[in-house]
User: What shape does this take?
Amino acid sequence: MNDCDCLALRLSDDRLQLLDQAQLPHREHWFAVDDVDTLIEAIHALRTRGAPMIAIAAALLVAVRVTMGDDRDRIVVAIERLHAARPTAVNLAHAMDGLRAALGAPDWRAAVIDCAERLFDDDRALCDAMAEYGAALIDDGERILTHCNTGGLATAGIGTALGVIRRAHEQNKGISVWVDETRPLLQGGRLTAWELGALGVPYQLITDNMAASFMAAGQVDRIIVGADRIAANGDFANKIGTYGLAVLARYHELPFHVVAPHTTLDADCATGAAIPIEQRAAAEVRGVSGAAGDLCWAPADAPVANPAFDVTPAQLITSWILDTGVFDAADVAAGALREAASAA
Ligand code: MRU
Assistant: This one.
C-alpha cells in the first residue's frame, strides 16, 4: 500500500498507527492498529475521532487486513462491524459502502486497497477546496468562534471549519479565534487549542456558556463549525452545543456557517429528524477522565443525559461551505445539497 501521513494517522509498510487523541494535549502517544477490535475501541473512546478521520482510519484498516491475507468473508465482517462503530457521522457509512462495492470487483483485493487509499488522498484535496471557498468569505481582523475540533486531527488534511480558519490566517487576514471548550469531552479545549497553538493562530479559550455574552458584547464576527451529517434539506448534526450557537448567532445577527466535504452529505436523510444521534456514557457528564486521572464531581449515581450531537435546522444557517462551493438557503432549497451528494 501507499504510505499515508497526516496529523493523527500514519500508514507505513502496511502498518497503521493512530495518534491517541484522548491523551492530547498532554501526551502525544501513537498506537498501532492492526485489528478491528482495537479500532472499534479507539473510535468508542474518541482516541480517533472526527467524521472524516474515523471513516479514513476504518477504510485503511480494512485495506491493511487485506494485505495481511484476510479472506473475503473476514473482510465483509470487518466492514460490517466498523460500519456500526459510530452512528451519527455518515462519512463512515459512505466509506464502508464504498469498500463493500469494491468487493464486487474481479480483483477485489486491489480494489479495496485502491478505494481506501483514494479516501485518504481525496480528503486532503477536499479540505483544501473548502478552505479556499471559506477563507474568501472572511474579512481582515475577524474574530471567529468555533466549536469542537474540525482540524487536522479530524481529517486527513487541514480540516473543515478549522481548515477555513487556518487558510484565512495563512492569508494574513489578522483573524483571531474564540475556541469553545466543548463540554463534555473538551475537544475544543484539548484539541483545537492544541492545533491553533501549533499553527500560531491567535485564539482564546472560553467555556461554552461564555459564547452568548461575547456575542452580546460585539466581540464575535462569525461562527464557523463542522458537521457529522448534513440532511438533504440542509439541517445538520454536529457536536452537542452547535445548535445553541446557531440560535445565538441568529439573535445577534451574526453569520453562521457549516463547513463539510460532500462525503458528509446524506441525501437519504430528508431532514435532520432522520439523523441518528449517538448517546454516550453517563460518566462523561458526571466528571472527567484524563491524563491526570478520573474526577467525578456529581453524585456517582446521578441520572445523566449525554447526547453526543445535536441538530441545527437549515433556517439558522447563513451558508453551507462545501468542497464544491458556497451555498445559501435558496441554493439548498433548489436541491444543491442533493446534487453535491451524488458525487459521494
Ligand atoms: O465526537 P467527535 O469529537 O468525533 O465530534 C466531532 C465533531 O462534531 C466535528 O465537528 C465533526 O466530526 C466534523 S470534523 C471535520
Observations:
- The pocket of MRU is lined by residues 46, 49-52, 89, 148, 150, 154-155, 159-160, 187, 226-228, 238-239, 308 (CB under 6 Å).
- The chain has a mean pLDDT of 97.
- Residues 131-343 form a domain with the Rossmann fold fold (CATH 3.40.50.10470).
- The chain has two domains: 4-127, 131-343.
